[in-house]
Amino acid sequence: MNEDIAVELRAETEKWLVRADERLSRCMGDDRFLSNIKAYISDSRYFLERGDLIRAFEAVIWAWAWLEIGEELGRIKG
């Protein structure tokens, strides 16, 4: 992977992890939704620590998707 792309991907992943953590901290509701979101955030950190930037970014995007879907369906509120 090109070094510039790797730096940018790491920065984007870290940015979205912060946003996901902040948003999750305000959420209440369906424990299954919240558990899945937490798991994707955890997975993202795991992959990030190991330098697997694509999987790290993918996991944080899935966490964000679960947040959006959960709110849209009324399963969680934040």
Descriptors:
Substrate Binding Domain Of Dnak, Chain:A, Domain 2; mainly alpha; 3 helices; 78 residues; 2 strands; 5% strand; two-stranded antiparallel sheet; elongated; single chain
SSE topology sketch:
Layout: H1 3-25, E1 28-29, H2 31-49, H3 53-72, E2 76-77
Antiparallel strand pairs: 1-2
CATH level 3 topology: Substrate Binding Domain Of Dnak, Chain:A, Domain 2
Helicity range = over 70%
Total number of helices: 3
CATH class: Mainly Alpha
From the alpha carbons, calculate the radius of gyration and give it in angstroms: 13 Å
List low-pLDDT spans: none
> What structural class results from the helix and strand content?
mainly alpha
Q: How are helices and strands ordered from N to C?
A: HEHHE
In angstroms, what separates the terminal alpha carbons?
Answer: 37 Å
Q: Determine the oligomeric state from the structure.
A: single chain
Shape, per Cα inertia axes: elongated
What is the count of structural domains? 1
Question: Based on the structure given, which CATH architecture is correct?
Answer: Up-down Bundle
Quote the average pLDDT: 96
For the report, how would you describe the main beta sheet? 2 strands, antiparallel
- According to DSSP, the number of beta strands is 2
Name of the CATH superfamily: AF1782-like
Strand content: 5-15%
- Lateral arrangement of strands in the main beta sheet: 1-2
